[in-house]
Amino acid sequence: MNDLEDKMRDALRPVGPTDGFSDRVLARLASGTQRSTQEAQARPRFHRANSRWVSIALAASIVVAVLIGQQWRVQQQEEGLKARRQLIEALRVTSDKLDLAYQVVNDPSPSEAQHEPGV
Amino acid sequence: MKAEATDPLDEQLAKARSGDQRAFAALVRAHQRSVYSLALRMLTDPGAAEDLAQDVFLQLHRKLSMIESSAHLAFWLRKIATHRAIDRLRQQPAASVAALEEADLLGVHIEGDPLLQRQLRELILDLSPAARAVILLRFQEDLDPLDIARTLEMPINTVKSHLKRSLATLRDRVLNRDARSEGHLV
To answer: What three-state secondary structure class fits B27?
Structure first.
């Protein structure tokens, strides 16, 4: 077992990266710092632009909602008027029919009078 | 983890914490071999190993304030490197057994039996990511099981179990190889 462990240590001796590794790390560090600074500067602009668009979208939504509400109310009124007109027409027709029926009942026809017994 | 500032790396650490980039570069140079080797032997791909090692040092730069000493620094770097490598292998398991010729790049050090060394490195690639990390920390970094357990945040019995099973597997395969080569000679 010890022999194998020694062989493992030989096989797994550390190897280094290619030359300039620390320089590459520092370069990434510098670019990352630069990038995060740029991002920090860009962020308020982004937020300002973003909040302006949010305000515009909100105002547009309110206008659209008001218009839709108005249109809905007008449509409801029109439907109410139409229903009222239909009801009045129905009442008028019913009234005409009732008048006709009343006339028929109150004005008996001559043929009916001749056939009455005792006349 | 606190240590007296007699170690030159402790001085470099103190300077790096105060923003000295040259001191930070010195810390990178002092530990790049260990971090890169762990990454390379875990991932087997030199490009991925370089990326991972760089990421570890960038993370170190952000966390310098919490590093207490040079001993803590070495422990922290090994821990982050192995955890990142295990995570990457779990996300991209195919990369773990990638090109064996990449593993040949590991054979820089030639002392003893180069074929056996190559075979051992190839056999390690067959182990699970966690078992591979245990073997590397034991034989590359020369850590004892307790330190390996702390580094990998793993129960010590699991570490011992990984070591026992992995070494038994490797020994069997090496013995089989020897038997086969003797068979060829007869």
So the answer is: helix
